[in-house]
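User: Can you help me understand a structure? I only have the sequence.
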Amino acid sequence: MPERLWPFPVQTPVTEVLEWSTDVLVTEAAEQRIALRTSPRSTLTLSHLLDASGLAEASELGRARPLDDWILPLWHLARPATAPVDETDMTVVVDATDGAFDGAALAIIAGNGGGAHLIEIAAVLPDRLELSAAARVSLVHAIVAPVGTAFLARPVEIDRRRQGLGTVTASFTLRLSDSSAAASPYPQHQGLDVLTDPAVLRQPLAETLGQTVEAIDNGYGPIVLEPVLSHVQRRSTITLIDRGPGRLTRRRWLLSLRGRQRAFWLPTWGRELVLQAAVTAGATSIIVAPFADPSVWFGRHLMIDHPTGPVFREITAAAWDALGLRLSIVAPGKGVALGTPIHLLLKVRSDADRIELTHGPNRTELALPLIETPT
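Assistant: Let's start by predicting it. Here is the structure, written out as C-alpha cells:
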C-alpha cells in the first residue's frame, strides 16, 4: 500500500481522461473489435491554489520519490458529512449509497478548502463509515471522499503568481481494476444496452451520413464507385451531463464499454415514426405515417416510448397500408395509445478510445463521439 498522501485541496473542474486500446477489424458487412486493454488508463489532472507553505510542501513532495505510488483523494466524488467530526469519533456520518466507498480501506476527510486527512475504514454502511481508528481531526463542516492508488503521469508544474501564492498542477494515473462485471443501469435489447436517458443528452453536436466507397477513375471514361462497406455509417457527437449518484453510474457504464469495443443502442429521439392508429397489446403490426419506401424498413429497430416503460422491437416486414405504412413487429404486450412517441434505434459504439470527463462541483460532463456499426 502506498505510504504518501497528496493532501492539497483542489480547484474545480477536475479533468479525467479515460484511454483504452481497441483493434477494429473491418470487413465489407461487419467488424470485429478486440479490446487490447480491458481496463482503461485513467488520468486525473488536479489544480491547487496554494499559499507559500503549501507551495513549499508540494515542491518537496514532487521531488521525493516521484516514481512511487500515491494515495490520491478522488475530489470529484467528495460529498459532505452529515454530522460534525470529532477527533475521537469512530464513525463518519456520510451518504455512501452510491457505492463510491465500496470495498475501500481508506478515505479522506477535509474542511472547506483545507488539506486532506486520511482515515482508515473498517466497514461501509449506507449512511456512515465505520473507522478502524479514531478520526484524529475535528471538523464542523467536513467533506468526505474516497481515495485511489496512483502514480505521477507528468512532472508537477508550479506557477508562482507572487511570493506567497501560486498554482500547482499535477496529473496522476490511477491504478484501476477491471470493472467489466459492473451491472448496467440500462434496459437491454438483443443483449445490448439502450441509452434511454435523453434528459442528459444535450444535442448532437455534429452528424454525418455516408457510405465508404472507392472511386475508380482510369482517366478516359466515367468514374466508377465501388463500395468498401455495404452499410451507411452515421457519425455524431453527443454531450452527456450527470449530477448526484448518476455521475458514478455513468463512469461505470463508460468503463464497461471498453472504449470502441462494446456497442449499444441509441434512440434517435426523432419523429421518423408517427403512429396513425392505436395499437392493441396483441397486435403484430403498427401503422405509421409514410415518408420512405417500405424496402428500407426491414431489419430496422424501434423503441415504443410507452409511459410504463420502453418497448423494443425489430421490424420484420413493411408494406403500404390505406392509413400509411404497416410495419410488422412482435406484439408489444401492452396497448399503445395514438400519440405515443416511437423512435428508431441505432446500433452504435464509441468512435474514440479516449474520453475526457470534466468533473465540476455538482456535475460531470463529457462529449462522446459515436459511429453506427452493423455488429
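Now, to help you interpret it: The chain has a mean pLDDT of 89. Residues 205 and 237 are 5 Å apart (CA to CA). Let me know which part you'd like to focus on.
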